[in-house]
């Protein structure tokens, strides 16, 4: 029996939860298969790309990624080279001799993993034969007009062929093949149908049918057990894709999902309970200076303030030092991403701020790409006016400074009336007149093609948030992804996030949620929901998420109106925080980044590999005990110091933005609190799994 070194995993109480064997990676080959290897389409690309370094560090030259070949991606992302491993080289040579085009190289990302890429178009002449193979394997037929499904079949067939050649040429090594999403699923189906001696894992990052149903504004989570799955898939003309996904799920030795909420969904949609939950992580880079991220926040906030000065010229009657920047970003899925309840909550927040005569202003950015003609002329004019005013002020400063300098050299106190002459006053008056405008600041930075039917603009018209002088909430729709080369808002997404105060992502359908995770890693508080994987993960691991800057809106058990009220209260509580409280909260938020580091979350994938080997090769790999591990009992504690959850109670809500309570300084010891959090994250604990035993109802979540 092939064994590695025993690894004991303990709980916070110190009692062993289970024992597994460290994998002898020198005797194994790990292949990870995904359509988004070197090919950015969506969130799976981020998963694969960010996880590569941790996996490559662990597996070395025995780790390979398999994906599709695209010429442009190959030129810009891959350094082509010859495979060092004889098994890989022989498998590629065999396929190339039989009419395929297989490429090999290093993906130029952190970790520089090896990639094997298949040219889909070059092998398309085999499509009819491979359709027959799939029909024989699982009785699933693919329509000729579904080009995407046909491409996935070619990709899967090439993957299964390659894995067969690898198993034929490998000597004494066992193989793990990890397939991501339905696009890679046919490779798993064909490999199992041909009885290849490999251990297989299938991960769904979101069920295919779940995406379609939620996009149709159906009350998804309250009707999970009521859907006629075959009927729903057939009506949406994706029945064959659904069958491919479901067949892959049931063929895999181990089935995983990225979150507990997706596990519940998969159990109903795909009729199999996931074996392991594998949360998504990020590569967390710590600064050598502890509070460098706070300095970056101040620097990039100043750049956003410059944009706001130009956008609201002529209406800049609010204090930018008391202005908070909120944002929502992602695909333009109005309901799925929660833009609908966000806008409704902003209307209620505007009412609360005006009613309480707050001096805080909130500027909200919607970064969601949509069809546009070009930049809005009024928006470009605003930035031009701002730049002109800056140049005027700078020239006045230079002139004033020279006269002041000359007077001081002569030993005189300058006469302020003579410092500025009549021409200078004329220039300044003209500059002031240039800031006058007859219209309100625009709510969008671009000319929208479907202006009259655009969901965000239509809602803005309905709730009346037109950036008026009396509005305490201002709205800016930026229907393009951010870029440092933009003439309007020249900032990369990461820079923009660091400059904002709060990210708001009240999604209805979000299997994981990279946007709030990225905010957390950068030390920016965020709003998420208990219908997102990220929100469930934080609820499970943090005793008081709000104190750590993670606001979790209940969209599962509350009505839509109640969820809007809860979100509005979260936002209002955030607006009432003092600057010092926001700094404390950002410090706590940034400390949670350790929870999202692949060096920490990679252990979930490690557990899945142990499990698949023990199922595929039970006579050679052993895992004890067979009962699944859980994450129960591990939580970041509630901070003992103030401020606790700002909107959790009236007592903890700050009363003033300028005056601080002296007791707060005594009760808040950041170094002590940070050290306690560091010890918590280092404590080993049992890995995540959908627990056996009590069966969960489709709408139930363990709070």
TrEMBL record:
Known pathway: Glycan biosynthesis; glycogen biosynthesis
Protein name, UniProt field: Glycogen [starch] synthase
Enzyme type, top EC level: transferase
Signal sequence, start to end: none
One Gene Ontology MF term: alpha-1,4-glucan glucosyltransferase (UDP-glucose donor) activity
Pfam families: Glycogen_syn
EC number: 2.4.1.11
Gene that encodes it: GYS2
Domain of life: Eukaryota
């Amino acid at each position: 029996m092939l064994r590695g070194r025993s690894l004991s995993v303990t709980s916070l109480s110190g009692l062993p939860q289970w024992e597994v064997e460290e994998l002898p990676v020198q005797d194994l080959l790990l292949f990870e298969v995904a359509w988004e290897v070197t090919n950015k389409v969506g969130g799976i690309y981020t998963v694969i790309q960010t996880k590569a370094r941790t996996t490559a560090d662990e597996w070395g030259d025995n780790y390979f990624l398999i994906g599709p070949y695209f010429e442009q991606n190959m030129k810009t992302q891959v350094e082509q080279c010859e495979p060092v491993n004889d098994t890989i080289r022989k498998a590629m040579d065999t396929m190339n001799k039989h009419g395929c085009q297989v490429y090999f190289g290093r993906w130029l990302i952190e970790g520089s993993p090896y990639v094997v890429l298949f040219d889909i178009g070059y092998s398309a002449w085999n499509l009819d034969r491979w359709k027959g193979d799939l029909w024989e394997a699982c009785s699933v037929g693919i329509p000729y007009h579904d080009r995407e499904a046909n491409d996935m079949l070619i990709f899967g067939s090439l993957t299964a062929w390659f894995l067969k050649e690898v198993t034929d040429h490998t000597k004494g090594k066992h193989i793990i093949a990890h397939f991501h999403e339905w696009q890679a699923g046919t490779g798993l189906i064909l490999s199992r149908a041909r009885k290849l001696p490999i251990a297989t894992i299938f991960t769904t990052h979101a069920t295919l049918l779940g995406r379609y149903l939620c996009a149709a504004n159906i009350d998804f989570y309250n009707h999970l057990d009521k859907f006629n799955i075959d009927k729903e898939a057939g009506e949406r003309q994706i029945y064959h894709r659904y069958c491919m996904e479901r067949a892959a799920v049931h063929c895999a030795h181990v089935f995983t999902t990225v979150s507990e909420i997706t596990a519940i969904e998969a159990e109903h949609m795909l009729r199999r309970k996931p074996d392991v939950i594998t949360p998504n992580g990020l590569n967390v880079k710590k600064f050598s200076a502890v509070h460098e991220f706070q300095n970056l926040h101040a620097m990039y906030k100043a750049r956003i303030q410059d944009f706001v000065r130009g956008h609201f010229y002529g209406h800049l009657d609010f204090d930018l030092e008391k202005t908070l920047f909120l944002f929502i970003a992602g695909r333009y899925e109005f309901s799925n991403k929660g833009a609908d309840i966000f806008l409704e909550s902003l209307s209620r927040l505007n009412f609360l701020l005006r009613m309480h005569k707050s001096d805080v202003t909130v500027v909200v950015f919607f970064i969601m790409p949509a069809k546009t003609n070009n930049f809005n002329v009024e928006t470009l004019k605003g930035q031009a006016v701002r730049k002109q005013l800056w140049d005027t002020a700078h020239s006045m400063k230079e002139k004033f400074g020279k006269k002041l300098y000359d007077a001081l050299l002569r030993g005189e106190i300058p006469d302020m009336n003579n410092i500025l002459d009549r021409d200078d006053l004329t220039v300044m008056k003209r500059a002031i007149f240039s800031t006058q405008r007859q219209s309100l600041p625009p709510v969008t930075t671009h000319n929208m093609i479907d202006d009259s039917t655009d969901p965000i603009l239509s809602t803005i018209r309905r709730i009346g948030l037109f950036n008026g002088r009396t509005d305490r909430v201002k709205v800016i729709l930026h229907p393009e992804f951010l870029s440092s080369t933009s003439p309007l808002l020249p900032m990369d997404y990461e820079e923009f996030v660091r400059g904002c105060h709060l990210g708001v992502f009240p999604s209805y359908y979000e299997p994981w949620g990279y946007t709030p995770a990225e905010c957390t890693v950068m030390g920016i508080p965020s709003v998420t929901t208990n219908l997102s994987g990220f929100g469930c993960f934080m609820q499970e691991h943090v005793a008081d998420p709000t104190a750590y800057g993670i606001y979790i809106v209940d969209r599962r058990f509350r009505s839509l109106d109640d969820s809007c009220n809860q979100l509005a209260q979260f936002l209002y509580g955030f607006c009432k925080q003092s600057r010092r409280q926001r700094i404390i909260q950002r410090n706590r938020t940034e400390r949670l980044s350790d929870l999202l580091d692949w060096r920490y979350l990679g252990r979930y994938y490690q557990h899945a590999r142990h499990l698949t080997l023990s199922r595929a090769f039970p006579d050679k790999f052993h895992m004890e005990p067979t009962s699944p591990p859980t994450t129960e009992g591990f939580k970041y504690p509630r901070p003992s110091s103030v401020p606790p959850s700002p909107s959790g109670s009236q007592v903890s809500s700050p009363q003033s933005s300028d005056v601080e309570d002296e007791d707060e300084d005594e009760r808040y010891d950041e170094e002590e609190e940070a050290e306690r959090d560091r010890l918590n994250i280092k404590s080993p604990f049992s890995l995540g799994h959908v627990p056996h035993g009590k069966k969960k109802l489709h709408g139930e979540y363990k709070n």
